[in-house]
Amino acid sequence: MSLVSGPGRGGMTAIPAELQLFVDKHVRYIQSLDTRKDELEYWLTEHLRLNGLYWGLTALHLLGHPDALPRQEIIGFVLSCLHGNGGFGAAPGHDAHILYTVSGVQILATLNAFDELEERVKDGRKKIGQYIADLQDPETGTFAGDEWGERDTRFLYGALNALSLMNLLHLVNVDKAVEYVQSCANFDGAYGTRPGAESHAGQVFTCVGALTIAGRLDLVDQDKLGAWLSERQLKNGGLNGRPEKKEDVCYSWWVMSSLAMLNKLHWIDGKKLTSFILQCQDPEGGGLADRPGDMVDVFHTVFGLAGLSLLKYPGLAEVDPV
Amino acid sequence: MASHGVARVSGTNPAIRSEELRQKELEQIAAYNNLVDLVNFKVADRQYTVEVLDLTTRLLNENPEYYTIWNHRRRILLDLLLIPSSDDRPSTTLYRRGEELIHDDLQLTFALLRKFPKCYWIWNHRIWILQKGELSFNSASARKLWLGELQLVGKMLHLDSRNFHAWTYRRFVVAQLERMQASVTDTSLESVHSTQSLTESEFAYTTKMIKTNLSNFSAWHNRSKLIPMLLDERSADSAARRELLGDELALICTAINTDPFDQSIWFYHQFLMSTLSPKCASQNMIVRDLSNQDRQRYYAHEMEYIQDILEDETECKWIYEALLHCASCYLEIEGSTQAFTVLDMRGWLRELKRLDPLRRGRWDDLGRSLDIS
Ligand SMILES: [Zn+2]
């Protein structure tokens, strides 16, 4: 997920109260996230700090307030998570892992900060690229998360995404990676975490995203997958991640971006989804939750907003589905 | 930071905590951060001791998502496991034997998985410690170790029959057991086909799970993956393959009759239909020598009983979708038919649009692609 450059789409027009997006509340909610050091939860979620920063930053860009967080401080923090081996940890002192390395690269890309990276870390881009490339399993084409070896299509997508943001895709064997993604396809046209695993909307996003980056969408059974994705929408307008599961705002992103990559956004009811996402807002404190009335968090906030952006909600910046 | 299903209560707003609660939370934070600093310091200092291992246990119990601490734990264990296991010093707070260390981590991860069944790091660590355990045990004990895992994952799936971590873990454990059995029997030069595979029992397990809950798509999915292996291992001939296909179609027919509104069931039906197609890869076909006449018979039979259900369930969109799907498969094989008319197809499409307005755009596209709009 990254932002399409250029200005957002126009200003607010007259919108009925129940379809109102509480832009200012959300901006303030995101700004407040790093001030909550007197809450235990803040410390218990340190292992998500870098992802959280990326989610918050992206949400602010979508909301049209890209400068609501201080750019230099962010870059400083991101680089303080970078290890000598080119991998990023979740926060200073946390071990390097591909999940955080991808977030680190995404933040630097969003802030256009690769030059600053090179100034402060000699051959920074190359080192990061090499860290990611070394995680590819040359036999199967898939990627490990770190030196301990867990494998998952989430890592494969993250690797291709980060490398393509740095123009370093040539460091890995893209064809092998594509082959691996295809081995995760199921009869329903959707994808799982690894060969044999059940189809899951999050994994569909990572696999279709990887294939899009590799320029191999021709390998997707687009009608079948589109049908499976469209069946994620439930009567209340929300989307679930697998058959017969509950709706959740984060799937607004996983499902919708996949449909967007297949040019099938019109296969679900956008109006109903828009209103479901908007109901998940906390109208007082800002932020979005997984379902109406639940606790908000920055993860659901950004994925809800990104979903709204794909739904062309007025005033939001445009998001790139990959 | 990514919370699911936690109700928003305005009283939990930190701004309106009582001063007493605030103080208490500040103390908790200080204690937690002290523990974090202590563990990080001692590991950086390479104090790979049982004492530091126990500190990581405490910390992971408080925060199992802290992946770096799991890494620290493995660093410590790698060091501690180097001490020869023949050593028979009594276990103390300063010393533990390899088996005990492994046992402790199995206990720890089991307790944590019960509380946090969707935490990737716990599942990962459990696999890691089992692989270490396998190396230090003889083959019989190692096999027992993995068999225990099959029981554990059975319990996890009993608690949540859709947990995809648990299903993934189940397939992994089965693969480990099959690998071990293969290496045991390799030396005996026998044909070991029937004994080394768990495919039959895993297939039976999906049957059990489906019968408990028809809408368990995870079980239906696993079944779809097991069938090709099952047929291979049985060295099934054409008649046996046809019989299995017949059994599966009968099973799904009963399921459809029980709850035609459940999408898990219809996706499995779609799977069975996909194996009939001439476009299906031969390793995924259930019956490999289908003639086009056979195919048409199957499609016509499906359409017949699905149409029967229509008499009681006129408001179920899945029925119309399945009818259209079967019809289009039929027409792919032969351009014309007596079994149904274009008018029928238009009618089904109209019903789909009426009953399923959420996916209106998809039905419009379908009408165009079938040339019936
Ligand atoms: Zn969610």
TrEMBL record, chain A:
The protein's name: Geranylgerany transferase type II beta subunit
Keywords: Transferase
Highest taxon, organism lineage: Eukaryota
From TrEMBL, chain B:
The protein's name in its UniProt record: Protein prenylyltransferase
Native source species: Lindgomyces ingoldianus
Origin: domain of life: Eukaryota
